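Page 42, continued from yesterday. The earlier attempt failed because a stray header line got pasted into the input along with the sequence. Redoing it now with the clean sequence only.
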Amino acid sequence: MIRRHGILRGLRPCPLSPYRRTTIQPPSRSNNTSHTNASPSQQAQSVAENVRGLMREIPHPLTVIVAQDTTTIGAPPAGLLVSSFNTVTLHPTPYVSFNLKLPSSTYDAIKASRTFTASAVADVQLAQDFLMDKTAEGYRETMRSNVCDQRSGMLKPGRGAIWWMRCRWAQQRSQPVGDHVIVVGEVVAADYYTRSLDEKVGASDKPLIYSQGKYRNAGPPVAEE
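This time it went through. Structure tokens are written below.
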């Protein structure tokens, strides 16, 4: 899985299809013995490539993170797509986390505002919008066209998001690791988005996942609980 600033990179819109189980072949003996003559850095790179390939087989939920840089007047909301969003704990206070590659303008905005909003993605175009290079022409307009409230980071109704979580940055619990940072946030509010004034997006709306280099939806259950 290729990442840029902690996000999936180079994703291609494709017809959504159910996730299919794939058999992963174990490393061959020749690959193991080849490490004998490799330098420590070469071995580390080889392991990293193996980990990347293995993790591509696992479905990852896609989540948009939005924060507002409060230190720059007129700055657009900063946002990106992550595949690492997850809950840390629910009790006594709910906390969530995700990973970002440094440097990151979104992380700078989180540090400036000390808040961010996470939104579950159900639409391929929305995912693609938040994969834009922040130096690309049209980035500001794309952010503003998707975000309805720059201060809260909420997305506009009908943009293809399912639920939102408003979070307070937990600075003391966030941790740099290598060239990434694990961002932790305390959830202060959460709910489903609305399609209209009187209709909420429901749990029946399927979020996007990313697996084996493609956007997908989760398939039917394979076992009863």
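Notes: Residues 40-55 form the longest helix (16 residues).
Reminder to self: strip header lines before submitting.
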